[in-house]
Every structure is written in structure tokens, then in C-alpha cells.
Automatic annotation (TrEMBL):
It comes from the Bacteria. InterPro entries: HTH_MarR-typ, MarR/SlyA-like, WH-like_DNA-bd_sf, WH_DNA-bd_sf. This is MarR family protein. Residues 1-130 form the HTH marR-type domain. SUPFAM superfamilies: Winged helix' DNA-binding domain (SSF46785). One of its GO terms (biological process) is response to stress. It holds the Pfam family MarR_2. GO terms for molecular function: DNA-binding transcription factor activity. SMART domains: HTH_MARR (SM00347).
């Protein structure tokens, strides 16, 4: 329960700071989508798999992010039938704001630990976490 509470505090801290940066039309679930789209982009199917939601829900989220100017559709480089979702300049600006927000949110937590405690916590979490599995809890 403590780990879930800490995770929620982290999400809430990042969300409030992202909103304070001017991105008031997003919710935390969008940030998890941005994490998947921030590299070379992704298809709706990729996004659905990443968020563990239906393709229809991922498509609705994509449409919302397109309407808000955070994402655009582009031709897929290797599949003529697929469309790639990629972040716009506004989308990248939001991810940069989220990175700053995460650092600001984590700073007081890190300051509360000694360097040895921080290293031990990082090691323990590395053993517990599943790499690449960062998604919202619906």
C-alpha cells in the first residue's frame, strides 16, 4: 500500500506541475500515452497494447490528442496500411514540462533520504519493477 501511495503522490505531483506549466487540458493518462509516442511514434494498436486498453479506447484518446494539437498522424514508414501517431512541437513541449515536473516532484523525496538509502531504494525498485511497464492504473 505504501508503494501505491508513493506512486500516486508522484503522479499527482507531476500532474499538478504540468498543469501549472500551462498544459491544463491533459490528464495523467495522456502522459502515459506520450511516453509511448515520444520516440519514433506508434500506431493506435501499439498505443492500445502499451496502455492495456482496447483499440477503440486508444483511437479515441488519439483523436482527442490530435484535436488538442499534441499529436499528428503520419504515414507509417514500413506499413502502407498503418498510420503513425507522433508528437507535435506542443506534445514535445509537454513531455519536457513533465520531465521537469518529475524532477521537481522527486527532489524533496530524494532529499529526505541519505545517499545510501536512495541507492538501496533504487536497487530494490529495479528488482521489483517490470521494465517498460509504465502505464496508468485505470
Amino acid at each position: 500500500m505504501l508503494l501505491l501511495s508513493a506512486a500516486r503522490a508522484l503522479v499527482d505531483g507531476i500532474d499538478s506541475r504540468v498543469r501549472a506549466s500551462g498544459f491544463t487540458d491533459l490528464r495523467p493518462a495522456h502522459g502515459f500515452a506520450f511516453a509511448r509516442l515520444s520516440g519514433a511514434g506508434a500506431t493506435v494498436t501499439d498505443l492500445a497494447e502499451h496502455l492495456e486498453i482496447t483499440k477503440q479506447a486508444a483511437s479515441q484518446m488519439a483523436e482527442e490528442l490530435i484535436r488538442k494539437g499534441y499529436v499528428v498522424r503520419r504515414p507509417h514508414p514500413t506499413d502502407a496500411r498503418a498510420r503513425l501517431l507522433v508528437l507535435t512541437e506542443k506534445g514535445h513541449a509537454c513531455t519536457q514540462a513533465a520531465d521537469r515536473a518529475a524532477a521537481e516532484t522527486l527532489a524533496p523525496l530524494a532529499a529526505a533520504l541519505t545517499p545510501a538509502q536512495a541507492a538501496a531504494l533504487r536497487t530494490a525498485l529495479t528488482h521489483l519493477a517490470t521494465p517498460g511497464r509504465i502505464r496508468p492504473i485505470w
